[in-house]
Amino acid sequence: MIFAALLAVLAALCNAAASVLQRRAARSVPQEFGLRLGLIWALIGNPLWRWGIAALIAGFAFQAAALSRGGVSLVQPAMVIELPFTMIILSRVFGTVLDRRSWLAIGVLSAGLAMFLTGAVPGAGQWTPDALEWIITIIVTVATVAALVAVAVLSRGPIRPAALGVAGGIGFAFTATLIKNCTTILEQDPGALLVSWPLYGMVAAGLCSVYLLQNALHSGTLVVAQPALTISDPMASILYGALLYGEPIRTGPWLVLEVAGAGLLVYGVIALARSPVIQAQIATGEPPK
User: Fold this and answer.
1) 289, part of any domain
2) Residue 116 domain-assigned (yes or no)
3) For the chain, what is the domain count?
4) Domain that residue 84 falls in
5) Rounded to whole angstroms, what are the CA distances from 14 to 8, 44, 55, 125?
6) pLDDT at 160 (0 to 100)
7) Could you tell me the sign of the dihedral formed by the alpha carbons of 203, 30, 92, 47, in that order?
8) Is 178:141 a contact under the CB 8 Å cutoff?
9) Minimal CA–CA distance to 56: which of 33, 95, 23, 28?
10) Would the CA dihedral through 31, 159, 17, 141 be positive or negative?
């Protein structure tokens, strides 16, 4: 469990670097490219975006290794630490000093994560989903993400990045469940992986999630998009882990600690996203004046 959590932290570090690079690249593209495939083509020519994708791939590798050793409901919540890493990377890159409020938010988020994982202690999966469970999950996931995208298309203002952020978070959570399945197949029969549908479903879900992420970052301020993405991913992952793999979390009196930890997580994420350091540096690529 500890080793899986450490691998998840490394994945979060890579994802934080990817977020900084991709955000700077995305903000250089005109708004009329939003929710169009042309957005990706425009980004491919930007070297910062390509470095961001390289960091994202490294994060994927660490995430896959973590999921091969721990449950979805452990790994994905642990990766919430990505946002504090983003703050620290930004401050180091631009030589700025994080204010006391930012450090307090980082401390609150970290404490919330520790409280939640201490209370929940997500266990190993008790079963592997069958074909019917996968079909139902795919239908529900696709319908939910499609509904959120429809809301984004029909909306303006903060609703658009929030809806796309939640859709992206659900997409990444679902991708993680497929990664988990692929690692199981790889351990049992490596030759069967290339002819199994979860591998190609994972690629498709991952690409769609990256596309949603780019549009969430491109369509609005980080204070809206980042909390929506960061909070929806672990929450959806816990549901996927419990329903698809039977990954247990503690209940009873431990729920008090879990709810308190989740509350601190939400507060910490929102407070960090409102930090002038992260907003100024990711939105414009420049340190705050």
Assistant:
1) no
2) yes
3) 1
4) 2-284
5) 10, 19, 5, 26
6) 87
7) positive
8) no
9) 23
10) negative
